Structures are given as C-alpha cells and as structure tokens.
Amino acid sequence: MPFRATTRVTLGFILLALACLLLGDFEISAHDPWRSLGQLFLGLLQPDFTSVDSLGEALLRTVAFAFVGVGVGALAGMGLALLFHHWWVRTFSAFIRAIHELFWALIFLQSFGLHPVTGVLAIAIPYAGIFAKVYAEILDETDPLPAVVLPRRAGRLSRLVYARVSQAWPHLVSYTAYRLECGLRSSAVLGFVGMPTIGYHLMAAFAQGHYATVGALLLTFYVLIGTLRWWVRPKVLPFYLLVAPFLLGTGLPIMWSNVTRFFTEDIVPTPLKRGEGLEGLWEWFAQLFVNQALPGIWNTLLLTQLALVATGALALLLFPLISRHFTNRPGGVLGHVVLVVMRSTPEYMLAFILLQLWGPSMLPAVVALALHNGGIIAHLIGRRSNEILLRQDAPRGVNRYTFELVPRLYGPFLALLFYRWEIILRETAILGILGIATLGFYVDTAIQEIRFDRAMVLILITALINIGVDVLARRLRGRLRLRHGVNRQRC
Questions:
Q1: In principle, which of 136, 158, 379, 446 could form an S-S bond with 451, CB 3.0–4.6 Å?
Q2: DSSP-derived secondary structure letter, 254
Q3: Over the stretch 439-465, which tens digit does the pLDDT of each residue have?
Q4: pTM surpassing 0.85?
Q5: Which CATH code for domain 1-30+271-491?
C-alpha cells in the first residue's frame, strides 16, 4: 500500500470534513435534551413490555417481511448473478441497489398502499441488486478445474450446479444468512412509513412520550438480532421460508387501476402531460434541479463526508473493545455487546430517536450514521486484529495500539471505510424523510404534495449520485491497492 498516497487521501478527507463542519447545522434545539436522553436510558433500564400492544404480532411481521423480502431478493439475485457478465445486467443491478428500501417503499405505497406486497418489494428489489453482485463474485472465485474434468456432454446447468455452485455453496449460505440480519433491520425501518413492523410501534411510542415502551421495543429488537444465529438454523430455514408468507398479514385490496395510473400517468413529467414539448420539459427540470435537487445534493454530500470521517474515527477508537490484544475474555464479551447494539440499530431508527431528543439538525444524522457504521467496521477490524500475531516483547497499551496494530490494520480499515461510503450516502439521502434537508426531504415533500413526477426525478438523481460515489470509492481502493478480504460484508 503506498504510504504517501494513503496519508494524502486521509488528510484530504479529514480537511474536507472540517470544512463541512463549518458549513453544517449542528445546533441542539430541544428544550431539555439531557432530560429526554435520561428518560430514554431509564426506559432501557426499566422497560415496560406489557404496554406494547400486539408486540408478538409486530415481531412476527418484522421477521416475515425480512424472510420473504430476502428470499425473493436472493432468488432474483442469483438469476442476475448468472448473467452478470453482461454490462446491462451489471448496470441494472447497480441502479436498483442504489435506491434505498424506504424510497422503494414510498414508490410502491402510491400504487399498492399498505399491502404486504409493498414491504416485500421494498426489501427484495435493492437486495436483488446486492445479491447479484456478491453472488457473482463468489461464483467467480470458484476453482475452474472441476468444470474442466466434467464429461463433454454435461450441459450448462450441470456444469453450474456440480462445478461452481457446489464449491461456492458454503459461502453463498453464509452471505445469505448475513443479509437476513440486514433484512430484519430493513423490515423494522419500514414501520416508519406505515408498515406493521416493530418500527411502527416505536414511532408511536416516541410520539406519545412512552419511554418505557420505547425501551421495551428496542431491547426486543436487540434480542431478536443478537439471537439470530441460534434460532435461524439451516435445517429449519426452509420451514421459516414456507411459513413467512402467511404471517405477512393482509392489507386493503390492491386497486390495479391505481397501479396502472401511477406508472403510466402520475410519474410522467407535468410538461409532457400538458403537451408543452421538450422546451417546457427542460424549463421544468431546470427549476426542479436548481430549487430542490441542488440544495439536496449539497446537504447530502456534506452530511455524508462528515459521517464518513466520524465513522472512521469511531471505528479506530472502538475496535480494541473486541481485540484479544487489549481485552480479557469478560471485557471482550462486553465489547461485543456494545458493538452488536451499535451495528444492530438501523441508522434511520437511531436518527429518529436522536431527532426527538435533540431537535432537527444535522447532528442526529451524523451521530446515527457514525454509530451504526462505526460499529460495523470496528467489529470487522477487531476480528481482523485477532488474526495478527505479535512478538513476545511487543509493547503494550497505547504503544501497542499506535505502532503495532494500527499500521497493520490501516489498509483493511480504509478499504472497508471506502466500501461503506456508498452505503452511508444511501442512508444520508433517506434521512431527509425525518426533516433533514437532504435529497430524501425533497422526495418526501414531493410525494406529500402528490407530485410523483418530481419525486421520481429526485430518486433517480439520488441513484446516479450513489453509483458515482461507488465508482469513485472503487477507484480509490484500486489506486491505493487496498485489499480488505471482507468484501461481502455489505449492509
């Protein structure tokens, strides 16, 4: 790894973040934020599980949406992965995964309403794009020799199953199980747009100031994520997949005329419906871009840069919590619990909580993004540090951290950070639904004003920016020769 280039890039990102810090809004406007924060912690210490109406049903719906959405996404993703060598498949996969689940949910809400189809498609479509890329990478890494020794008369399907899938099967299963944890988080967040998952009850409890109920819901969600490895076993997974569709519930009947009208009329730009031609369309787009897209892009990129650097700082600070070079067994267990809570709490849910406590500004968004993504990277880097063997006379304490471990871990750390860059941007855009003036704010405003044509254009702009950042991050990783070995940890 080129040391000077890495140093220049690191300093450049830090300086850019400091400049963004001067331009952002980080005021705490709540009347008594520390009192509210204390009430939340008290609710976590004294949760009231009896006050949650239909907690069991909310949990079942959360799990059901996750299983069905991830299952459909995995099947579609495998189909796309087999065709991933075509440029149009790669482009299509990049596009659908660049749009956040909540944006997909907002789109389908306008046509299907609060129907289970909305929640399933909102998870399945972006996950299909993610699965396509990662499944294709896993299949490409298989040994080509078994395909060579198969009989010549073996068909394509036989070669795929016996020569590639059989080798990649453990990795495919492992990654799919990992995505299921992500699916549970996505399913919970869908409750914030009205789907009957645990996020819906959390939002209602906060609105009523019932912090004991909030504590009960959060602890239930942490237990659900933390025990995933014990209740999701390969042998019972087919049973879950068969039962899950029947636990989604039923919504209002789908009005197919509304679906047709949405995709054929509502999202068509207004100038075209009025017959104003290309000149009218250009003027309409120019006003939309200057008045909404440009401010949204500016705030989205500004917030993303701050969150990215804060994520990196937090990850470097916290990875010793689970590193055997710094903690004993009890300390390591406690560190794991801390990082599990951080990475298990969806950014949107955490930002919603902090906005209620601190008031509307960029501060809750930056903290939420840094805590979640910092917890993920700290966990991965901490596990990586446990593979490093130190000499017997290696220094201890701060010197061990500064001179022995960080230099060896900095390359994988930077690669992971650049890998999370595009994901942080996706989350930053969607946080606008909570009132922060990112692109999501203007998308949500357009939908509330029933201007779906504007909303779709803004969503497309969001997707293009995401793709651009992903390309930039990949080029930086390539230029700095960064290899992190955990490329499949996408969430």
A1: 446
A2: P
A3: 999 999 999 998 999 999 999 999 999
A4: yes
A5: 1.10.3720.10
